[in-house]
Amino acid sequence: MKTFAEIAFTTAVQGLQEKHGSRATYSRMQRESEPGDGLGAREAEYLANADSFYLASVGETGWPYVQHRGGPRGFLKLLSPTCIVFADFRGNRQFVTAGNCSADDRVSLIIVDYPNRRRLKILGRLRFIDISDADRELSALVELPEYRANIEWVAMIEVEAFDWNCPQHITPRFTLAQVEAASQSLHARIAELEAEATLLREAASRKV
Q: What does the alpha-carbon distance between residue 152 and residue 51 come to, in Å, rounded to a whole number?
């Protein structure tokens, strides 16, 4: 596996870093960085809690295409330290990402954890396997029994590099489920106070 900088810091990128005074810092970072063995326990836990991500591919015209992919929490599966799989659901039948990857399999992912202001960037190579052609073990891995959507393909990403991004400019956002979970104790306390108020009113009416 490569370091993120090996792929992302091209000659043009390094030229701009030099021009704007950040090249020395990034050059030192590149020298000290080691590729590693792939995604570890931290990344595995992060992916297991994700319910969406952004996926970029490049078409034959050279134009990038960015797509939002979502599913139930945990639909991104870590098959190995260098391989991510997920269920690709039947959609609008445009096949833009699939078509792009049939000619150039290089993709970029950004997975954002809005409540905790974290983001993970992944560079890799994506291929699609028809669900009918996937072996039983792979099909079972991506199946989502409680999610009502038809799985068309198994998407498999061979990870080339990854990097954690800084939290700057990530605005915290919360799902309805997260808001409901966070406010559960508040609702319980309100119910207790309402019950107490009811008892006080009843007691007062009996005295009258």
A: 19
The vertex-86 CA angle with 80 and 164, nearest 5°, equals: 65
Is a pLDDT exceeding 90 seen at residue 208? no
Beta bridge partners of 162: 122
Q: Across residues 81-98, what is the average pLDDT?
A: 90
Give residue-wise pLDDT tens across range 119-164.
Answer: 999 999 999 999 888 888 898 899 888 888 888 899 999 999 999 9
Domain 37-172 has CATH 2.30.110.10: yes
**CB neighbourhood size of 90 (10 A):** 11
